[in-house]
Amino acid sequence: MSNISITQKDSVLDQIEQIRHRIAKRAYELFRHRDGGFDDPVSDWLRAEEEVLWKPAVELREKEGVFTVLAAIAGVQPKDITVDLTARDLVIKADMAHEHSTETGHVHQCEFVQGQLFRSVHFPDPVDPDKAKAEYRNGLLTVTVPAAPKAQTKPAEIKTA
Q1: Residue 112 lies in a domain
Q2: What is the CATH classification number for the domain harbouring 120?
Q3: Digit-coded pLDDT (tens) for 122-134
Q4: Number of domains present in the structure of the chain
Q5: What span, in angstroms and rounded, lies between the C-alpha atoms of 144 and 68?
Q6: pTM of the prediction?
Q7: By C-alpha distance, which of 127, 126, 144 is closest to 136?
Q8: Nearest to 71 by CA among 95, 94, 50
Q9: What percent of the chain is predicted at pLDDT more than 70?
Q10: Share of residues in the chain with pLDDT > 90 (%)
Q11: What is the DSSP string of 6-60?
């Protein structure tokens, strides 16, 4: 088991926008490569998304005021995992590399992912980033973070004149 550090951020929108821009650029390249044509531009986008990043499976659950995010990221070294957290969002990132050595024989098929792992999760309620913990074991990243305390409000007193 490896503990993973968590970086608190004010916002993750800039990271999401950077990824969206990279996907859009690749989708446009795919579109141009086929000379525009009448194929579905959505398929260009989906193919570009698949080429640009790896979006691992995640599970978000809540029990007794604590959120748990599980991410299946087998094959990633703990030192390569970045976890960014805001009061509403979680971003998991890692650079993936997979190389073939000619010394181990000729590769006939390879489905290992290469590129950037990027996954964002939006919490349904605000969380307390100061109390978050992340650990990586057997290819599974587990991030636990308690819900933020709810603000106590008192009903306003109405004074009659």
Answers
A1: yes
A2: 2.60.40.790
A3: 999 999 999 999 9
A4: 1
A5: 4
A6: 0.77
A7: 144
A8: 94
A9: 92
A10: 48
A11: EEE-S--HHHHHHHHHHHHHHHHHHHHHTTS-SS-HHHHHHHHHHHHEE---EEE
